[in-house]
Records
---
Amino acid sequence: MTTISGPQTLLVTSTVSTLEKCKSIYEMRQIHAHMIKTNLVNHTFTVGKLITLGSLSGLSGGLDYALSVFSQIRNPNASIFFALIKGFSDSSNPLQSIILYAHMLSCLKELNGIEFSLPSVLKACGKSRSFEEGRQVHAQILKTHFRFDPFVSNSVIRMYEEIGEIEFARRVFDKMFERDVISWNSMITGYLRAGEIELARGLFNKTPKRDVVTYNAMIDGYGKCGKCGLAEEVFRMMSDKDVVSWTSMMSAYVLDHRPRQALDLFREMLSLGVRPDAAALVSVLSAIGDLGFVEEGKWIHTYISANKITLSPGFIASALIDMYSKCGHIENAYHVFRCVSHRKSIGDWNSLISGLATHGLGQEALEIFLDMERMEIEPDEITFLGLLSACSHRGMVDEGLYCFKIMQEKYNIVPKIQHYGCMVDLYGRAGLLEDALGVIQTMPMEADVLAWKAILSASTKHGNVTIGENAAFRVMDLAPEDSSCYVLLSNIYAKARRWDDVAKVRLMMKQRGVRKIPGCSSILVNGKVHEFLVRKEMDVRNNSEVLSKIEEMASRLKLEGYEPDLTQVLLEIEEEGKGSSLCHHSEKMALAFGLVNIRNSAPIHIVKNLRICCDCHSFIKLVSRVYSRRIVVRDQNRFHHFEDGSCSCKGYW
Ligand code: ZN
Ligand code: ZN
């Protein structure tokens, strides 16, 4: 390396300042070429600047370029190593960072200042799960005074946690001379992520100085492992809640299927003057989507517009699209989608496609996909999940096969188990049970519960006892506590009038202690959600009103030729009894309540927690014609738009 003096100092200054302004690798290359011409490439400081900027500027391709320049110089100094080690530890190739660190140790004579690269190399070991290398770096640290440095020790703790060696992390934590709030927080988060809830709580109770991060970590961790009550307890303990605490608690409610509590919490947050951020809005929108009633969602949408919160980039646009389609307002979902005319993220496209899928708008979903192709937007695996389910919800077998083919051949996406599940579902719903089984036999992994459930429900629908029985037993092996497979199997037997077998399934359920999830339908009337459970109304006041309306409906429909479909009833009671209990399915009660209380021109929206049964489906179809009402039912799987005697699902559900 040469030293430069005199007029060339000016050249160095101007080259470095142009380098700092570089906006692309292309520009950087040009300056590099200029440096070769002027021999500046042998000047340590300038070439160091080039490598540092390449490593750390975040320019696309910068890191690899920096590495190639690095490989051409002799005697690189410590700061060049630091930049590259840091750059690669943040990249998708963290192993390179470890290689460079080892290289640095072997070629630098003076190891002064290597502590600056320790957090980076530890991070790289964690990210690449390199346990042996991580332990070596740790051993090296123990021989120096850095073992007293809480900053370095915290990095070691996080590394072991990333690798999944939580006990090693704890040992480091216990031996620390001085723990700061970050040490406590990392250890608590590590336990939570490892699912060690008790240990996390123990440490949380001992934490000398909890900050808002400690609390947030506990709320988030409890929420993610399904301990919503405990999350609540910690949340209420906090005196100074920030927006992240509120959001973590809302997400815990959403995960625990308590969307109403999430929404109430959001309102409470607003009333205390806490301004929601993007994450809070996404969380409350997902709660509203689960709840299924659009009014609150429209209000949030107005709030977003009034406060000039940008829809994109970010997740708000896709959260709005999801919410509107889950609430049955696919037109509004379309509208939001069009509003983000440019700068649409892949998430926005995917949300619309899967929204269209659940509404049975298969053709429309395909058209959106063709738009994507025209605009040269690269679809991802989620796009194809949406497309495949759109095809299966509409019985579009050929189109589904086409999507499955181009996904692999044109876009090089390796199908995951969920994609195969969609293919099973696609064939099954269309009644091609043998082809559906063929997918299960040829797919490269073991079929999961969802795939077998798809076969089971297709067999129920198409009355295939042999295939259905086999599938039901597979589901029972994989998920013995899932009541739906027992119900479906007994429905298959009932359809084939094999009452002895129906009784056997019932006995099996009893012996195994499997409980049927009670059907529950809700409906929004005048801003209030009313819930109906099978045979037992929550709202006693409207009891007699609803029952007499159901009777009236049943007798009007009888005139139109309606016969209750008794084959799908699991209950072993007299035929007549079966007829009357069918009348008390929760969706029929919600519908009766809606007919009485919702003005004529407005559509009736009902949300059901389980799959709608065949009888209710044909019942509601007839009601939509006889009473000239538009009725939208969201069941566990999809939307049914009933109008003038037919349903948008065309029987595929
Ligand atoms: Zn029903
Ligand atoms: Zn339908």
---
Amino acid sequence: MRIAISTGGGDAPGLNAVIRAAVLSAIDRGWHVLGIKRGYMGLLGEDEVIPLTRDSVRGIGHLGGTILRTTNRGNPFHYPVKQPDGSFIEIDRTDELMDNARNLGIEALITIGGDGSLAIAQQLFEKGMRVVGVPKTIDNDVSGTITTFGFDTAVTTAMDAIDKLHTTAESHDRVIVLEVMGRDSGFIALHSGVAGAAHVILIPEIKWDIQNVCDHIMMRDGLGKKFAIVVVAEGVPFDGEVGTMGESMPGQAKRVGGVAERIARAIQARTGKECRSLVLGHLQRGGMPTGYDRLLATRFGGAATEAVANAKWGHMVALQTPHIVPIPIVEALKEHRVVDPSHDVVRTARRIGISFGD
Ligand code: F6P
């Protein structure tokens, strides 16, 4: 058996642990493994396809990033091609991709990615490719699995930032607004905000009002607590609009961000308190995966190999505690996973006095 592995979309801490586990468990079955570099680029002649051996995955389980590299602008069904006038058109390069996979003797593909990459995997499966998916997202926004690797590391990074902001905000009697990732789902903001003891948490799933946020800050002020930490998910709309930061590259989704600064300015204008903002950005995606993420990633890698052995084509591995089970990728793609406002974590936050601005 000859299988291939690819990583697509934004990186997440734990990708290398998945690759390591998938390669070691495949070799254990006597299979050969290839690594496709940069999403599907390696199968389009735009990057390499490399052999993955015990040696290639030695000592990588604790490392962030992905040894296979990744991209979020190489959808082979909508591949951007520059025209002589500088504009871009999109073409379907999947016939070429399938031919190259066949010529390399690839019998099955383990593709590790978020909702975008899993949607591509599903389409390739429908075109005849024998695909098994592994869900990846720091945002925790893939349905069908209780969580994915990368989320715990991102929450830990954001919580560390909130801890550090507490001491400086308190020393200066300032309000600090921290923007964390999460374009459609507020899980990172919610979990890091509760774990880090933020005072206000703003997420896309709960409609908020700036005056409620200011009232909460001034209520604290009145009690002698002159500082406040506000954690906001990047996808939270301000004045009905989700902010963008900078220009996207061709074939890439719009870059979301900038809401923290708009909120900080509004709080300062309404309360007269000094407000600062910061965007935590890609720090949340970098660094070593936590123990939880390494373990989950390793379990996913081993389970993906087993799914290949059991011919679970068009399935992805999912955590359904205490088991890792294969589920149809289409099931996971049916809906985007978002925070349930009646969930216990939200209720716990409210019980301990955290405001959601609603
Ligand atoms: O999809 C995960 C995510 O972390 C989003 O929260 C964020 O908007 C996006 O990736 C940023 O991706 P990049 O800046 O790498 O294109």
